[in-house]
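Review form for a predicted model. The reviewer records the input and the model, then writes brief findings.
Reviewer: anonymous (R2)
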Amino acid sequence: MAVFLSPVGGVAAQFFTNTGAVLTGGKLYTYAAGTTTPLASYTTSAGTVARTNPIVLDAAGRVPDGGEIWITSASYKFVLKDSTDVLIATYDNIYGVGVSNTNPDNFTGDGTTTAFTLSTSVANENTISVYINGVYQNRNTFSVSGTTLTFSEAPPKTSKIEVSYN
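Model under review:
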């Protein structure tokens, strides 16, 4: 399995609270982008040893066991909390360093069309990212079935729709 270095916490990153204190015992959760479905991360570039989820930060606010986070080619959501589960930050729609979007589709909204045909069938809806005029669309605004992307409301006339998936 191919894994890629995570841009969130990747190598030797140190995390802090919003007041600047070292985030001792902080928790970094990894999910499929746009969801609360846990998604594995790994300890090395071999991708053979999964990290705990959440990743519990050490006394210096760093990722333990070598300080590296490796992720698959899927799009991730990272949720950073302190040791008592108070939310500090959320980072959504994150890809590993070097992951390329190999399957982009682009459409133009006409103000009435809600269904668009993708060039490739999507097996896992969690691997798709949709942007309208550069704005990321939440999962509750569209659905995907095979090669059909359906919006709950038609994108505006002349809007640029970009769909990316791996």
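Findings: The chain has a mean pLDDT of 88.
Further findings: The chain has two domains: 1-99, 105-165.
Recommendation: see findings above.
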